[in-house]
Amino acid sequence: QVQLVESGGGLVQPGGSLRLSCAASGLTLKPYAIGWFRQAPGKEREGVTCINSSGLSTNYADSVKGRFTISRDNAKNTVYLQMNSLKPEDTAVYYCAARRTVLPMCIRTGEWYDYWGQGTQVTVSS
Known about the structure:
Radius of gyration: 13 Å
Mean pLDDT: 96
Distance between the termini: 40 Å
Largest sheet: 7 strands, mixed
Helix content: under 10%
Structural class: mainly beta
Shape: globular
Number of helices: 0
């Protein structure tokens, strides 16, 4: 059974940092592109960032460029999202998603992905 499990969320003050993890079981992440998405109450889901299977190609939403960094450790079967300079508007449930692909790219569109985690809450507040 394929599972993606997010962790690392929590409450942080504006300007603070968090690192989210997306750990996979039931599959080897190496051939998969991974995306991070978020959804705040009353808002549509937003594609935050993604990374291709090799880790050499990434894509970021304008709202997080320069603040968030996606990376992957295939040996640990885990993808990370380092979030710095957090703002209240970053508050949301964050999800990771996976798609097996041979394409040397990734897409920040939710419909492209096959597997999803349950999400982890990130709250940025003073």
